[in-house]
Amino acid sequence: MKTGQDVQNCVTGQRIDQRAFRNTLGHYASGVTIIAGHDGLEPIGFTCQSFYSVSMDPPLISFSVMLTSTTYPRIRDTGRFSVNVLSDTQQEISNQFARKGTDKWAGIDWNPTRNRNPVIADTLMWLDCDLHSEYEAGDHYIVVGQVNEMSPAEWHTRDPLLFFKGKYRQLHEPTH
Ligand SMILES: Cc1cc2nc3c(=O)[nH]c(=O)nc-3n(C[C@H](O)[C@H](O)[C@H](O)COP(=O)(O)O)c2cc1C
What we know:
three-stranded antiparallel β-sheet; Pnp Oxidase, Chain A; alpha+beta; 17% helix; binds flavin mononucleotide
């Protein structure tokens, strides 16, 4: 059995190797989202796992994005974005929106929110946000959005696409 002292030894006795850091963080299971916008000419978006809720009043959410993202600066310029939380049938959409420099929207069925941000068909849920604030942190930006529209309750009929230890997973309901 590991004692508190063993845990302390692990944390202090080891340099943080990038690959090991990524593997360790991979044990935090998450959903998968597409952060999307519209620049007036075409829809834009990228796959993003680092999404979470921040505040109820006002309603704020956040995600982090690599400083090297080519899509995020275009979304920032519009001052708004949508969050599309993917359902368990949308693994290919996740892969498609993670490929830089490709036509990410090929074959994607979507409709605009009131703010013209794309909502991808068959998502688990969606949010429409105004860009609230942004913070540079290491090699990522932390982006905060204020939610002004969201999927209605009757939309929420699907199961989530999950990401855990570097692989897509499905939710299995306990049998007992
Ligand atoms: C499952 C999954 C989760 C991802 N999560 C993030 C994330 O949280 N933040 C991020 O910046 N990139 C994330 N990516 C990578 C981006 O989607 C990828 O770098 C994308 O191509 C960026 O494209 P862009 O240069 O068009 O912005 C993720 C990719 C996958 C497959």
